[in-house]
Amino acid sequence: KKKKYTEADYFRRTQAWRSKAIQVKCRDGYLCQICIRKMYNTLQQYNHEGLSVHHAIPINVDWEKRLDDDNLLTVCSRHHEMAENGEIPYEEIKRVIDEQQAKQEV
To answer: How far is Cα 28 from Cα 50, in angstroms, rounded to an integer?
Structure first.
């Protein structure tokens, strides 16, 4: 059966998203920002494996925030799945993003 691709799926293939994801990973030091804070059953504090960029407010909820630095966070695959499933609350993700943004502005 053929998968139906969403607007978000197509967006993740764009150069704009690829560039933004690299920028966010760079801001976050190419480390999972949940692991480095030893939150949510971290196994390895300085985790640079299986990284992706998580949208705190999902693309399908607010399309306008899809490239906003204050909506994006570098996480490992384990913590990305937890964030997607709501096991890491939005407020917690947002607090970490705000910390990362503040560091960048100094």
So the answer is: 14
DSSP string, the chain: -PPPPPHHHHHTTSHHHHHHHHHHHHHTTTS-TTTTTT-SS-S-SS--SS-EEEESS-TTT-GGGTT-GGGEEEE-HHHHHHHHTTSS-HHHHHHHHHHHHHHHH-
The two tokens of residue 22 are 């690299």
Cα–Cα dist 69/27, whole Å: 10
**pLDDT tens digits, the chain, 106 residues: what are they?**
677 888 888 999 999 999 999 999 999 999 999 999 999 888 888 888 899 999 999 999 999 999 999 999 999 999 999 999 999 999 999 999 999 999 887 7
Q: What are phi and psi of 74, to 5 degrees?
A: -80, 125
The tokens of 91 are what? 């407020």
Q: Which pTM does this prediction carry? A: 0.89
